[in-house]
Amino acid sequence: xxxxxxxxxxxxxxxxxxxxxxxxxxxxxxxxxxxxxxxxxxxxxxxxxxxxxxxxxxxxxxxxxxxxxxxxxxxxxxxxxxxxxxxxxxxxxxxxxxxxxxxxxxxxxxxxxxxxxxxxxxxxxxxxxxxxxxxxxxxxxxxxxxxxxxxxxxxxxxxxxxxxxxxxxxxxxxxxxxxxxxxxxxxxxxxxxxxxxxxxxxxxxxxxxxxxxxxxxxxxxxxxxxxxxxxxxxxxxxxxxxxxxxxxxxxxxxxxxxxxxxxxxxxxxxxxxxxxxxxxxxxxxxxxxxxxxxxxxxxxxxxxxxxxxxxxxxxxxxxxxxxxxxxxxxxxxxxxxxxxxxxxxxxxxxxxxxxxxxxxxxxxxxxxxxxxxxxxxxxxxxxxxxxxxxxxxxxxxxxxxxxxxxxxxxxxxxxxxxxxxxxxxxxxxxxxxxxxxxxxxxxxxxxxxxxxx
Length: 453
Known about the structure:
By secondary structure, this protein is mainly alpha-helical.
């Protein structure tokens, strides 16, 4: 059985890194599990997610990973539904949840970003409530930021929006004195948030990591999730935008200037990088809820009120959380025998053939195969840790005309690439190399012994 949720090389990498952390009782500070850069500085910034994935896999297998992914997404949507029901009623909340689900689906793979989704909803919802009440978010949410920063790099999204909400509060202050007091209160909260986010193995340097990753254009160019959204790879985003435009034209709801800028930022992020679509899906309903509620016609408000009493018990937070926990347990038991089959990140048959041949030696691999090689006990030339390999290294790796120099410099004994990779064609025509194995997923070339050349 195959699952789209498991179709990612990062999952293999995180499980392997998590197992390393559990075995060594420490977070690595260098390029563990890499053949080309074993001593490069690298700290596992998502170490808590890696440990969690490793524990779930070790005890529950692939079925546990799938059930955990379902539980995290379900929890995020449940929290969103509960929050939106306060302003738009049960029907509006369910509608927002359905639309949000549609935007989460394109990136629904078992990666650390799923663990951040419930935290994102809690964080943004608290800020929206605080602005509506004319206050600041509660300080007891700050440990949530520390947890977020150790799970996934998207914590910076939360901090950026704290700054945007602070700017909105100052901009909309009625007097200069009120603006000064508001600026102080929000600045203190933002500073506390930054301090909470710095409680990671990387410390203060971890605050710069998300921006450094965004600047690595060459390193992320071949990663599908970093590709710009289009009708082909992200149709739900276009549908969501059309529905938003239709609702705005029909109801005439208007957003305050600062809130409009926040929505535009979310739209830009979603179109610039496919991986940010779920941020729009979960954060936008929270930003829009009060404007939509104010624009509802009297008949719609009456219908919301009538359904409210009937649906309120199903929206209760305790029932949502309890239902999700039960679903997670049942799902993990039902998926306990799930088998992770081959996919574009999992060249199972090709690697089996290489292992059966004997000690293969150093490899030059497709970047997307790096995580699986690590998972199978091999040290890859490159994997998904582009922050560790760096822009220059990745650019050299991607240059087809540098292939032969890499083969010589790193004493490569075999290669494994996609069938459609231009490097595969080069290897087919390179003296001293022969095609050893090929299928629809991967092509393996091995270096010929000197006597045979």
